[in-house]
């Protein structure tokens, strides 16, 4: 199946919400087709190129399915949609249509069963709780108490100000426990840089 891709300057994670403003014809058509079929589209991270105009020249090989959960016309007349991250995928063969919409063969990545939070995750869970106080995070309906390692890892990876390469490294991790370990490492590095 040829799956439509939306290259963006961000890394989307499963279970995380993203608000998008759609104005290019190729993406209006894509969103319309996705809504008709009840399907999502793929968000991949731009590594070279831009979000508007021509198709991005280079983007991440791992992406996240975006499922449309809400839409509205913005005060500026443009279409606003809210998507929630779904399944992770690996990008295969890519083609670009005449309208510059990128299509790709995708291979869905297996997700392991979620695991309950452990004692060693208490600090990370408290950090997510603190992030929930931020108005932008609250507007997205994210943060606060989570039920397991998967949600904690994905939301922290999405919300914390890590470098794009670090976020992509986190998205590629198959196990939520590995993702949480890596998040702790990145936080320790950030703290070390701030105190140096």
Protein model, in words:
The longest helix is centred in the C-terminal third of the chain and has 20 residues, at 176-195. With 196 residues, the protein is α+β, with helices and mostly antiparallel strands. Strand 5 (62-73) and strand 6 form a beta hairpin. It has helices spanning 25-37, 122-131, 135-139, 149-159, 164-172, 176-195; strands at 2-8, 17-22, 41-48, 58-59, 62-73, 79-96, 102-108. It is globular, with a radius of gyration of 17 Å. The protein folds into 2 domains: 2-108, Archaeosine Trna-guanine Transglycosylase, Chain: A, domain 4, CATH 2.30.130.40; 119-195, Methane Monooxygenase Hydroxylase, Chain G, domain 1 (Up-down Bundle). Helix 2 (122-131) packs across helix 4 (149-159) and helix 4 (149-159) runs parallel beside helix 6. 35% of the residues lie in helices and 31% in strands. The chain has a 5-stranded mixed barrel with strand order 1-3-5-6-7. It is built from 6 helices and 7 strands; from the N terminus they run ββαβββββααααα.
Short précis:
By secondary structure, the chain is α+β, with helices and mostly antiparallel strands. It has helices at residues 25-37, 122-131, 135-139, 149-159, 164-172, 176-195; strands at 2-8, 17-22, 41-48, 58-59, 62-73, 79-96, 102-108.
List the helices and strands and how they pair.
Blueprint: E1 2-8, E2 17-22, H1 25-37, E3 41-48, E4 58-59, E5 62-73, E6 79-96, E7 102-108, H2 122-131, H3 135-139, H4 149-159, H5 164-172, H6 176-195
Parallel strand pairs: 1-3
Antiparallel strand pairs: 1-7, 2-6, 3-4, 3-5, 5-6, 6-7
Helix pairs in contact: 2-4, 4-6
């Amino acid at each position: 199946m040829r799956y439509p891709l939306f290259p963006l300057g961000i890394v989307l994670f499963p279970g995380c919400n993203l608000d998008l403003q759609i104005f290019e014809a190729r993406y209006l058509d894509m969103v319309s087709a996705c809504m008709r079929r009840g399907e999502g589209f793929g968000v991949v991270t731009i590594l070279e190129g831009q979000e508007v105009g021509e198709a991005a020249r280079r983007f991440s090989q791992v992406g996240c399915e975006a499922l449309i959960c809400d839409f509205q016309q913005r005060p500026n007349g443009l279409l606003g949609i809210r998507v929630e991250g779904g399944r992770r995928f690996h990008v295969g063969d890519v083609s670009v249509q005449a309208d510059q919409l990128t299509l790709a063969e995708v291979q869905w990545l297996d997700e392991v069963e979620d695991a309950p939070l452990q004692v060693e995750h208490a600090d990370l869970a408290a950090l997510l709780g603190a992030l929930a106080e931020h108005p932008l995070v609250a507007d997205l309906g994210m943060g606060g108490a989570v039920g397991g390692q998967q949600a904690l890892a994905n939301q922290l990876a999405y919300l914390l100000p890590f470098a794009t390469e670090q976020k992509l490294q986190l998205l590629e991790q198959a196990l939520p426990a590995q993702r949480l370990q890596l998040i702790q490492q990145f936080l320790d590095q950030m703290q070390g840089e701030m105190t140096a």
